Amino acid sequence: MMRSFHDYEIKNYKVEINGENSYIEFIVSSDSMTKQIIFDKMLAFKIEDVNNFQNVILDILELNVDSLVQVNSLFFEKKRDYMWPIDFDTIQDLKDYLVQNSFKAFIISSSLGLNGWIIAKEMKVI
To answer: Would the CA dihedral through 114, 117, 119, 125 be positive or negative?
Structure first.
């Protein structure tokens, strides 16, 4: 079971691009508690609606990566010619690659501001 980050405010996030060691890290806080959420061995992400005054998490869910690709298949089809997130011929090829390489999908939903999804191998909380 994943930890709840309901009503945590995102204070900062950064992306480290370093091949298989890429990650995206969020610094979040609620009351006096500050935590780091790290999506390690990140392959791709789509983040939207970041604002400059407040970004509050509603929830972070782990979703079957197969489902994420299916729901966003038109998005991935548009990105295929740019070899994003990998070079693939069909949506099924992309799904197979993600599953065979143990990737997971994480959905960040918000009460306010930042939301999106991340494809990574693991999520760590520090």
So the answer is: positive
Residues β-bridged to residue 44: 119
Whether residue 64 lies inside any domain: the answer is yes
Residue at 1 is within a domain: no
Residue 1 has pLDDT above 80, yes or no: no
Q: Is 85 helix (H, G, I), strand (E, B) or coil?
A: coil
45 in Cβ contact with 104 (< 8 Å): no
3 is a domain residue = no
Q: Say if strands 104-112 and 122-125 run parallel, antiparallel, or are unpaired.
A: unpaired
Q: How many domains does the chain have?
A: 1
- Please indicate, yes or no, if residue 14 is contained in any of the structural domains: yes
Average model confidence (pLDDT) for the chain?
A: 95
